[in-house]
Design goal:
three-stranded antiparallel beta sheet; mainly beta
Amino acid sequence: MAMREIGWNERRGCFVDAGKYEDAIRSIFKLYPWESMMEEEFAEQCLRTYKQMRWIEPIWKMLLSNKGILPVLWELYPGHELLLEARFVDGNSGWEPQSGWVRKPMHSREGANIVMKLEDGRKIETPGEYTNRKMIDQRLGPEVRFADRYPVLGLWMIDQECGGMGIREDAGRVTGNFSSFVPHYFK
């Protein structure tokens, strides 16, 4: 069902199907990012009914998909061996990240709107729709490359336990929506 087919029944205080707006929706599997949903006119209803609904992809995932957590973690644990230094920046200031840093929107998907300044001064930029957003700068980690491919590991968490792992890889330094994806482990 498309989002435009979902209705709201104010009297009953619930989302309803598109038919006659009678059947309450109790479970929703969504592909639309939470941070985008919170900017919609129905955001209040999502929050008000959150505990009565079964959201498949819970709202707490918004914290994990928000790159703003990276500077906060660095501030809490400066110098930690598992973190890369990160800071909030004004993305509209016109200045670029220093060499050895990458600038990324706090909310973005699939490698969009990245500015990477390599240690040797070369710059890699990706286009995207996430302009005029709050940004962060993060120090580049060590380069990892296998057979001219750059891998990124992703974990699938279920009730705070890892239930799967996938590997995204690309010929370029930034993985995007056309990068290869291989599920590697499922539990």
